Amino acid sequence: MSINTHRRNLLKALPAAGMGAALPASASTAPDPWLQAQAIIDHVSKPLQFRKQDFLVTTYGARPCTMEKVRAWISFEEQDTIATPAKDAPDCYPAFRDAIQACHDAGGGRVVIPKGLWYCAGPIVLRSNVHVHLASGAQIYFSNQPQDYARYGDIDCGKHGKLSISRWQSNDCLNYSSMIYAHGQHNIALTGEDWSSTFNGQGGVPFNEQGDCWWTWKGKLKTLNAVAQGSTPNFSKGKMSENTENPLNAISLAEVAPQLTEAERLLIQGEGQRWRADAQYLPALSEAGVPIARRVFGIGHYLRPPMIQLIGCTNVLLQGYHVTHTPFWQHHPVHCRNIVIRNVHCESLGPNSDGFDPEACDHVLIEGCTFDTGDDCIAIKAGKDLDTQYGPSQNIVIQNCIMQSGHGAVTLGSEMAGGIQNVYAQKLTFQNINWATNPLNTAIRLKTNLNRGGYLRNFFVRDVTIPNGVQTSPSFYASLPGSPIQSKTVATAAGAIVTFDCDYTPISDNVRTRPPIVDNVHISNVKAGNVRTRDGKSASCYQAIVVLGPVASDYNGPLPVPPVPPVTNVSISDCDFGTPVNTAQPWFLFNVKDLKLNNVTIAGKVHSTTLSA
What we know:
The protein has about 625 residues and is mostly beta strands. It comes from Duganella fentianensis.
C-alpha cells in the first residue's frame, strides 16, 4: 500500500493549519450571544465567486439512463417497489470526472448536469473553484454496489481496493469513498435548481441475490423500545455487518500496536472478541495510536460511507437540492471552514441516516433546510478517542429549519472528544408530522460519555416550536454494572423534549477515562403541543427534561479517578413543554448543579426554580 506525497503532506498540514482567526469575543462573555450568532452569519454569507463558464456533462459523454422496477427497502422496516437504473445503464462517472477536471484546469466555472436520469458508478469528486449544479429535474442515481467506491481512490490498498482518506463515526480511516467527495479543496459549490434536483444513494436497493443492501451492514440494533426502527433491512443473525466479528481484523492489538502494555491492550480490547467487529475495531485502532495508513477497511469490511463527505475544505456552499436513500450519514464535512448548507431537503430513513453532521468545523450556517431522517437530523461532532487533531466544532448557527422524523432534531455529539462550542439554534420548527408512526425521538439532544469526553459550552437555543411533541413512550438506556443508575429506568434514548445524556451507550465503549464537561447552555421560548396517544391520552412527550450528567462509576482507567464534574450553568426559560405522559416525574436529573427553570410550563403548571441532583 502507498500514499501519494500530496495526500501525505496534506494530512500532516491540515491539523496544524488551524481554523483561522477566532471571533473577537467569546460567546460566554458577549452581552448578547445572538449578536455573536449574527457575526457568524455575516462572516459566511458572502457569495462564492466562480468563473462565468459552463461545462455541460453531456459534452464529455454523459448519457441519460432508462429505469426498471425493483423491490427495495425504503426505511428500517418498510419495502416498496421503486425505480432504479436498468442493468445496461450507461455509467456517467467518467463524464462527470472529466467535466469537473476540465473546469478545474480552466481556472474554475460551473459543471452543469441537465434534466434527466443519470447513473453514476463511482464518486463525484469536487475540485477547487468548481461549482457542480443540477438543473431542475436532474436526478443522479449512484451505484448501489460497494466495490464501485473502492475503484478510484488515491490510495491503493491491494485486495481492499483503491480507497480514500475518510472518517467513520469520527475516527480516521482508509475506506470506501463517499458518493460525493472532496479533500483539501477551496471554493466549491454543490447546488440544485430545486428539490427535483436529486442525489439518490440507493441505500436500500439490494446489491446481491440474498437481498442485502448498504443498510444491511448496520447489523443488530440496540435501542430499547425503538419506534419504527426495530430492525435492520434484511439482516439476520450470522450475517456480516459492522457489528459482527470480522476475521480479517487482528486477533490481538499486540499484532498492530506492539508498543502497548498488556494492561493498555486489555483495556482497549475489553472482554471477548466483540472488539474485532469493524465498528469497534476502528476505535480500538485509534485508542492504540495506530496511524491512518494502517487503518485499512474497504472491501471485506462493513463500514458504510457517508453520502457527501468533505474533508479539509474552505468556502463551501451546499444549496437547493434533495438528497435521499443514503448508505450512511447524508452530509459529513470534516475540518472545514466557512461552510453554508441552505434550502436542502435531507431525506433518508435508513440506519444512521443523519442529515447534516459538521465535524471539527469552524463557521457553519445551516439555514432553511428540511430534515426527515433515520437518525439525528443535525448532529454536531468533533472527533472520537485519540482522533482530535482537528480541534473543536465551533461558531455554528442553525436557523429556519424544519425537522420531521429522526432521533434528535438538534444534537451535539455523541462523538465530541475535541469539544463543541459557540452553537446557536433559532427559529426552528420540529414539525414531527410522522408522530403516530415514526416520531421524532427528542428535540434538543446532547450525547457524550466517559469515552467520548470533550466539552460542550456556549450553546444557545431560542424560538422553537414543536406542534406534535416528540415520542411519547420512553426508550431507555442500559447502564454498566455498579452504576447508581438502574438499567431500563432513564429515557435518554427517546421520550424527552430536552435530553442531556452524558452516559450515552456506555456499554459500547471499552475505554472510559475522559469525563466530559457541559457548561453554559441556555434554552428559551420552546413551545410543544400535545397529540392523542394510542391509549387516548393527550401528551407531548414521556418526560419534559432528562439531564443525565457524567456517571463517575463508569471510569475504568488508572487511579486516582479524575474529577467528574456535574452539568453546570444551564437555564431553561419561557418554555411550554406541553403535557408529559409521566406527569408524576416531569423531569429526571443526575449529577446536575443549579439547573435554572424560569417560567417553564409543564402540564399546565409553571415552574420557576433551581434544581440540583
